[in-house]
Amino acid sequence: MKNKYFVYSLLLITIYLYLYISLLKNVNLWIYDLKACFSVMNFTDFLENHLNVFFYLLLTSVMSIFLIKASVNLFKDIFTGFQLLNALKKIKSKQYKNLYLIKDETVIAFNMFNKIFISEGALKKLSKDSLKAIFYHEIGHLKNFHSLKLLIINFSYNLLFLPQKKEFLKNALLELEVEADKNALKFITMENLAYTLLNIKEMRNSNLMMNTFTLDRLQIHFHEKKIELSKFYYLVLIFIFLATVIVNVYRTCFCGLM
Q1: What would the 3-class secondary structure string for the chain be?
Q2: Residue 179: is its pLDDT beyond 60?
Q3: What is the pLDDT of residues 52-88, one digit of tens each?
Q4: Would you say 132 and 104 are in contact if contact means Cβ atoms under 8 Å apart?
Q5: pLDDT, tens digit, for every residue of 225-251?
Q6: Where do the structural domains in the chain lie, given as residue ranges?
């Protein structure tokens, strides 16, 4: 599947928000339920018959915290992106439509908001073939809307507390880089791409963002290594889906007083 981490992120956000909305719609009902039942039941029976309601309210609180955190981080990413874009425009030396040449002696090239930025250092230190590889790689990012996909992936990344979150983000980013490489390979050879990636990796004054998963990308291209989505993440989706079903089927307490 193409962009499986992005597709997974969309599914996660959709099911997560549906569950959250289902919970929010019933909060007032559950609070009224607790008050009504507490006044007519002994404490032990009250607890036993309202475990599901307590779980729903706890889940609502936890999901609210993560949703607020994810939303704040999303707005921060967008705001930081616009700040960086304005800063880059101030240090540009030349502009050719959506291609910006920036005053920087390090070897750097990246894309942002439908624009490609390449440093003067890259023009001076890289061959024409390497510049061609970089240019078509960045075009690949733009054509496939990777900036938007990355925002969505980051949003889903912040919705949950998981032990394997860093691996998820790494593989999601790697998947986008590989897709951009494949676009470049329509115009350049595999040898040119490999040489460019390894050459930039060896340069002392190349920017860190230019060395993103170099060896992993080469293994995928030369050895057809696949980027797998862990079964653990499917279990997370199943858990959220089942929680959604339970919330909508067993909306009230088990005592039958509602």
Answers
A1: CCCHHHHHHHHHHHHHHHHHHHHHHHHHHHHHHHHHHHCCCCHHHHHHHCHHHHHHHHHHHHHHHHHHHHHHHHHHHHHHHHHHHHHHHHCEEEEECCEEEECCCCECEEEECCEEEEEHHHHHHCCHHHHHHHHHHHHHHHHCCHHHHHHHHHHHHCCCCCCCHHHHHHHHHHHHHHHHHHHHCCCCCHHHHHHHHHHHHHCCCECHHHHCCHHHHHHHHHHCCCCCCCHHHHHHHHHHHHHHHHHHHCCCCCCCCC
A2: yes
A3: 889 999 999 999 999 999 999 999 999 998 898 888 8
A4: no
A5: 888 888 888 999 999 999 999 888 887
A6: 4-249
Question: Are residues 130 and 138 in contact, defined by beta-carbon separation less than 8 angstroms?
Answer: no
Taking phi first (over 0 means left), then psi (-120 to 50 degrees means alpha), and beta for anything else, what does residue 238 get?
alpha
Q: What is the pTM assigned to this prediction? A: 0.85
Burial class, 72, CB count within 10 angstroms (exposed 0-12 / middle 13-18 / buried 19+): exposed
pLDDT at res. 257: 45
**What average pLDDT does the chain have?**
87
State how far Cα 209 lies from the chain centre. Answer: 17
How far is it, in rounded angstroms, from Cα 108 to Cα 100? 12
